[in-house]
Amino acid sequence: MRKKRVLLLSEGFGSGHTQAAYALAFGLRELDPGIQTRVIELGKFLNPVLGPMIVNAYRKTVVKQPKLVGIVYRRQYKKSLNRLTQLALHRIFYTHTSQVINQLKPDLIVCTHPVPNAVVSRLKRLGLDVPLYTLITDYDAHGTWTSTEVTKYLVSTPLVMQKLIDRGIPRQRIEVTGIPVHPNFWHTYDKAEIHSQFGLKDMPTVLIMGGGWGILNSDDLLAHMTEYRDRVQLIYCVGNNEEARDRLLADPRFQHPNVKVLGFTREVSKLMDVSDLLVTKPGGMTCTEGLSKGIPMLFYEPIPGQEEENCEYFVNNGFGEMLESTDTIEKWFHLIQEPYAAVQYRRKLLSKRNQQYNPTQCSRAVLQFMQ
């Protein structure tokens, strides 16, 4: 008997979209090992030279002109990608998408980025007979995600569902599933083993993330955090940004046994387990990973648009706070040094998480369709 196949299409405009696709793929296989999954960043796959160039140009725009990104986001907020735009995308960048789909023969397509979602929607209008699920990977519903050809929307919260309903999407085509995270974030790891693996101490710990795109630039706040290095362990994750890593390592303030500067790592789930506080950009995926671990979060420099919406959701629901000044650092760094207060706060967040989020729900929603 032929195994069921799920094709997950994403794009590399920020790592969260593709991470969500892989997380859903892992979750599906963990629930049903008989399902075959394939994750593709479509633009890069079809255009291995041009695709990364476009992503790099977008990254530079985000870093150097974030206000422009916000203006474009809001200007197009209520608009779906029109048919002329979809046609242009298909002919210029995605000409061979139908060939890929015909070759892989999926029983279901899941898109975790608006662009492949629009491309597949156009193919469905032209006769493609494969169900299309759209997984919205933020805590907002921008118009570019929407299309009449979508079979079902998988969304993060009831608020996002209501935004889609307000745009005329039928309620029965929307399911609140939360954003999937990798199964690594479903588990709790042994802290002693993690301390040994990374050379960490058993002491109050802060995990700082977000330098992969060169946007960990709040030097004054970073410097202020190092003033606690005798009492608080600091772990800086800068991803593949070697320039940022070299800059931090060369700074005497970061040359301390209680300060770790890490490059790219696949062990973020473990680092969250031994951390008492997460300082991060409010990307939809990172926030959901923090939510799954029940770790309090401080958000800095949200990109205008979806990151602002993500930040608003998590702050309003008590999972985090904006990092606006050194006073915020003082407050939280003192809290995590009080063992009882830190443990009680974490328990409160885990209880709230259990009420609002089930890490397997998105995978189960897709699996239910496959059966």
TrEMBL record:
Q: Do the record's keywords include Glycosyltransferase?
A: yes
| Superkingdom, natural source | Bacteria
| Domain Diacylglycerol glucosyltransferase N-terminal span(s) in chain numbering | 17-181
Q: Which GO terms describe its cellular component?
A: membrane
State the species of origin: Paenibacillus phyllosphaerae
Put simply, this protein is called Processive 1,2-diacylglycerol beta-glucosyltransferase
Q: Main EC class of this protein?
A: transferase
The record's listing under InterPro entries reads: Diacylglyc_glucosyltr_N (IPR009695), Glyco_trans_28_C (IPR007235), Glycosyltransf_28_UgtP (IPR050519)
Matching entries from Pfam families are given as: Glyco_tran_28_C, MGDG_synth
Kindly state which keywords UniProt assigns to this record, in alphabetical order.
Glycosyltransferase, Transferase
Tagged with keyword Glycosyltransferase? yes
- Gene3D superfamilies registered for this protein in UniProt: Glycogen Phosphorylase B
All copies of domain Glycosyl transferase family 28 C-terminal, residue ranges: 223-332
A GO molecular function annotation here is: hexosyltransferase activity
